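[Target chain]
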Amino acid sequence: MPGMMKRSVPKSPSHTLLAFCFWCIHLLCLVERCKAKDAANATTDPDEERALNAIFQYWGLSDTSDDWNISGDPCSGTAVDLSIRVSNPGIKCDCQSNGGGTCHITVMSVQDYPTERRRVIPEELLNLTYLTNLTLSEMGMEGFLPSFIGKFRHLRHLDISSNNFNGSLPPEIGTLPSLEHLDIRYNGFNGLLPPELGNLSSLQELYMSRSGIGGEIPSTFANLRNMKILWASGSQLTKIPNFIGNWTLTDLDVSENNMTGPLPASIGNLKNLSFLDISSNNFSDSLPPELGNLTSLEELYLSQNYITGPLPASIGNLMNLRYL
């Protein structure tokens, strides 16, 4: 009728939910667009850029990728795209922290890069304080690993494998609170594992095969309850400690060492262990029946030891075992 107000039709809950979803998607797009704009406008921290270019020149590296360059801003191109694998040599940057105006170098990777120059780790590296991942493998690195390596408080991944480092492993590595992955394989270190490494409560993977380090595993390593992988073949270690049951290992390789005595019964606590290699050692006595608790075990290598007696009947519990 004329003059009467038309009643509005109430919206159904499904329409309201759909509108809310569209609003959320629109807001998310705006946020991502702002982030992309901030990243595009951000520039590398000047101290980090100077340090990076100095290291670049010190090692005699050439400008080979968009990830790491001396002709423009280092944190540009694929260096800010985390979906693309870091090139060699290469860096990755974080341009969204601290308001997005400044980029910080978080990843540096240089592997198997030939040069005639002498390779050491220069002090300029100290200016890259935001590093979370440092890979310097197969670089022909010489001399001592500098103690200032312990100053990288954000470092989660450290790979210095296949170099010519010598001397002792600096105990300052034990001051890296975020370290999860440590690879020191194939070097010329000497001496023992520093007890300070037992402070690395976040450590999950330790690769030290043929690193030159030997002796006993320090008692402080009992604290490494997140340890999942230990590769230590050819390292002149002397025994498997009883506290190994404190770890959460999936892989344990201690082949070609000088390990003596019986295999500790506490190894049976490693319910997630899938790979165990204790071959080419001096283990003696019989195998502990607790081996039968390793129900995730797929590969077991025992050869070239002085183990006596028959295999424990509990081995029959290892239904996933493929190699013995």
Remarks:
- Residues 166 and 189 are 4 Å apart (CA to CA).
- The longest strand covers residues 102-111.
